[in-house]
UniProtKB/TrEMBL annotation:
Residues 279-321 form the PG-1098 ferredoxin-like domain. Pfam families: Cons_hypoth95, PG_1098_Fer, Thump_like. Gene3D superfamilies: Methyltransferase PG1098, N-terminal domain, Vaccinia Virus protein VP39. Keywords: Methyltransferase, Transferase. The keyword Methyltransferase applies. The lineage of its organism: Bacteria, Pseudomonadati, Bacteroidota, Flavobacteriia, Flavobacteriales. GO terms for molecular function: methyltransferase activity. GO terms for biological process: methylation. This is Class I SAM-dependent methyltransferase. InterPro entries: PG_1098_Fer, SAM-dependent_MTases_sf, Thump-like. It comes from Winogradskyella endarachnes. Residues 322-391 form the THUMP-like domain.
Length: 393
């Protein structure tokens, strides 16, 4: 960590050039001789990445940033706040602290928090930034989190761990056994040192397969932002024997959508089916990832269009964890019949349908956009159907 970067004139230069073309800045030359210009460019690019993702850091003075890749990989403040809402108690240890965004928000809920980071430079940055943010209840350790647990008999109310999803060649991995540290091997140690463990994993992990790898799972949280799944969170509780509660959340600019169900009850639940009625519902990505398709019908008392279509319908407009549409008409998948509707522009979605969106657009000569939404799907009678909709507010 080069403290020269925190000099007032350099900080002013960084702030003045957040919207500058960094390649042009390099060609023009950085007006500071006592520091590597690449470091200043790195600070500009990283800070700019924080504008919306990490506004607390962006708006604070004298924050030291890692490279922009590290910023891209860290939690957003939105997801970090959500994780913090799940914990309580006197002490928590973050075994893979990184840039410290999750640790920062854990410190709002927990009396004493420990931040472990094996990278010395990053650990120093985080320690400095916590001081700049006036946080005093976080202890920063430049150490491997797992090794810290092994050499120390201390116990915690919570352990948080976000295993690295890159191998030795820096290639992306997502299976638990391929991540570092290997959670499958370390979960016994984790539950020896804490009553509760929160594990953040890749959104790509299969829920059923991962439940076979982990013991004592109490909850699975599927966290999406603007309809993109960002994180899977696995809550382990020492000696827990109950059923697994799956909780989904989708944060967007207007509101937040929540849905939850009991994992083991999905197989026993029964869905109700019907042809398209007055309204159509499309689950958000967190719900789709959860696999609770029967539970959506059962818990919300809503009809499913087909076992494999994952679209729902009702006569009355209901609250729903996803998008809601008013059905204007229902057409068979027939080129001549669809052509009579004179639809030249529409938003197209396919669900349980054998033809791709690209092929449909080409075949029907429909461009993207507008206020009309077309859902190409299969109904309860196994008929290929086109549902013409508008947004339901």
């Amino acid at each position: 960590m080069n403290h020269t970067i925190l000099n007032t004139e350099i900080q002013e230069f960084i702030n003045e050039n957040l919207n500058s073309d960094t390649s042009k800045l390099i060609l023009k030359g950085i007006p500071f001789k006592n520091i590597d210009s690449k470091l200043i460019i790195e600070q500009i690019e990283a800070k700019k990445k924080c504008t919306k993702k990490l506004p607390t850091w962006f708006n604070a003075k004298n924050i030291y940033y890692p490279n922009k890749l590290n910023i891209e990989q860290t939690s957003s403040e939105t997801t970090a706040k959500y994780k913090a809402s799940l914990v309580s108690g006197k002490n928590l240890i973050d075994l893979t602290g990184g840039f410290g965004v999750d640790t920062y928000y854990f410190s709002k809920q927990i009396e004493k928090v420990t931040h472990c980071e094996i990278n010395t430079n990053l650990s120093q940055m985080v320690r400095h930034n916590f001081k700049a943010l006036n946080i005093s209840n976080i202890n920063c350790l430049n150490d491997n989190g797992i090794e810290e647990l092994i050499k120390n008999d201390k116990t915690f109310d919570w352990i948080y761990i976000d295993p690295s999803r890159r191998d030795q060649l820096k290639k992306k991995v997502f299976l638990l056994s391929d991540c570092t540290p290997d959670i499958k091997k370390q979960q016994k140690l984790l539950l020896m040192r804490a009553n509760n463990v929160m594990i953040k994993t890749s959104p790509l992990l299969d829920l059923t397969a991962t439940l076979k790898d982990l013991n004592y799972v109490r909850e699975i949280h599927i966290v999406a932002s603007n309809n993109e799944v960002k994180e899977l969170l696995w809550i382990l509780e020492k000696n827990y024997k109950g059923k697994v509660n799956v909780k989904t959340v989708n944060f967007n600019n207007k509101d937040s959508q929540f849905f939850e169900y009991i994992f083991e009850e999905e197989q026993q639940a029964t869905a109700s089916y019907n042809l398209p009625l007055t309204y159509l519902y499309e689950p958000n990505t967190a719900v789709l990832k959860s696999g609770g398709f029967i539970s959506v019908s059962y818990k919300l008392n809503i009809y499913k269009l087909h076992q494999h279509s994952h679209l729902y319908t009702s006569n009355n407009l209901l609250e729903f964890p996803g998008r809601r549409f008013k059905i204007e008409s229902v057409l068979p998948f027939n080129k001549k019949i669809i052509a009579k509707e004179n639809i030249s522009k529409a938003n197209i979605t396919t669900r349980n349908f054998p033809v791709s969106v690209k092929e449909i657009r080409k075949k029907l000569k429909i461009t993207d956009g507008g206020e009309i939404y077309l859902f190409f799907t299969t109904d309860i009678n196994n008929n290929k159907t086109v549902i013409v909709c508008t947004k339901a507010l």
